[in-house]
Design brief:
This protein is α/β, with parallel strands linked by helices. The protein is built from nine helices and 14 strands. It binds threonylcarbamoyladenylate (TXA) and magnesium ion.
């Protein structure tokens, strides 16, 4: 007899797949951050995602699929370099922006004719998508990060609960899958032109995109913004500052080789930039839990995940000083 051993979380995944099929919302773990998912083909469920997040419609959601094989169902006119990216980096912390197929509702894409597609690597996310499809569902989960609009993305199920439990309804679920290993959102690569362009930096770096595609990607820039596009926030309630003196009572976020300034409250003590990314959002949440007014953060230098960390910290610092400017999701 073959002995079958199911992962302990599998029952939660089965319930999650059922909940998705019935039009409920399911928050689930990914390797980047937790997502708040709905069946991408169910308009009323997708509408509830915007409502639960407090996110204005018009801000597109990423569709989460099982693998690169799913691309042709949800996208058309896929350039060869985008296929190379998907077949090399899916499942993983990468989202591709492609021209949408007719199967994608414009509610998901915020009215645009493009769609963001990502195959998350977390085993619970993979199992949830597979089980949802096996049970007759679309196998496509539209999901933004599982935070209220403009706030810090959650990297644990406890953080999801703190963000959203007041906005979920009976039948909705939060699946626990431990702490997110990467800790910052996926790299977004716009694949709608002849050459890939980095729209949001993440764990898949520009160098990786270059070496996978053999093309020179348009680098990420958070300076240049087309009019109408808003600066994202990822902001805690505490004010985040990236330079200046650290005062007693300030929160302090830095790599381990920076000693804690006198009187400061150490929120993150990361030996490497990867640890920094993994712990950053938890540290910002802790600042709020402690009721701190101000957090001083020293970003890691260099390329790699450092680019994503600097981007998120810059947005967090921006959000805390001029919140009216904009959004994130
Ligand atoms: O790591 C991640 O990507 C996480 C996990 C849950 O997968 N998701 C995430 O989703 O960060 P969200 O909605 O919080 O951020 C997605 C970003 C938004 O800024 C959205 O505007 C952009 O992706 N996006 C989605 N679809 C797009 C499209 N068709 N064109 C341009 N930007 C798009
Ligand atoms: Mg988000």
């Amino acid at each position: 007899m073959i002995e079958m051993s199911l992962e302990p979380w599998f029952e939660a995944v089965r319930e999650g797949a059922r909940a998705l099929a019935e039009g409920h919302l399911v928050a689930f773990p990914t390797e980047t951050v937790y997502g708040l998912g709905a069946d991408a083909t169910n308009s009323s469920a997708v509408a509830r995602v915007f409502e639960a997040k407090g996110r204005p419609v018009g801000h597109p959601l990423i569709i989460h699929v099982g693998s690169a094989e799913a691309l042709d169902r949800w996208a058309i006119d896929i350039p060869e370099y985008a296929r190379d990216l998907a077949f090399s980096a899916f499942p993983g912390p990468l989202t591709l922006i492609l021209k949408k197929s007719e199967a994608v509702s414009s509610l998901v894409t915020g009215g645009q004719d493009t769609v963001g597609l990502r195959a998350p690597a977390h085993p619970v996310a993979q199992a949830l998508i597979a089980e949802f499809e096996r049970a007759g569902g679309s196998g496509a989960i539209a999901a933004p990060s599982a935070n209220r609009f403009g706030r810090v993305s959650p990297t644990s199920s406890e953080a999801v609960r703190a963000e959203l439990s007041d906005h979920l309804r009976p039948g909705d679920l939060i699946i626990d899958g431990g702490d997110s290993q990467i800790g910052v959102e996926s790299t977004i690569v716009d694949c709608t032109a002849d050459c890939p362009s980095i729209a949001r930096p993440g764990a898949i770096t520009t160098d990786m995109v270059r070496s996978i595609t053999g093309l020179d990607p348009v680098p990420f820039s958070n300076q240049i913004r087309v009019s109408g596009s808003l600066k994202s926030h990822y902001a805690p309630a505490a004010r985040v500052v990236l330079e200046g003196d650290v005062e007693p009572g300030d929160g302090f976020i830095a790599l381990s080789h920076h000693p804690t300034p006198r009187g400061a409250i150490r929120l993150l003590d990361a030996p490497t930039p990867e640890h920094f990314a993994r712990g950053l959002y938890r540290a910002l949440r802790r600042a709020d839990a402690l009721g701190l007014n101000r957090v001083v953060a020293i970003s890691p230098e260099g390329q790699g995940i450092g680019v994503a960390i600097r981007d998120r910290l810059e947005r967090a610092s921006h959000g805390s000083t001029s919140r009216s400017l904009g959004e994130e999701g």
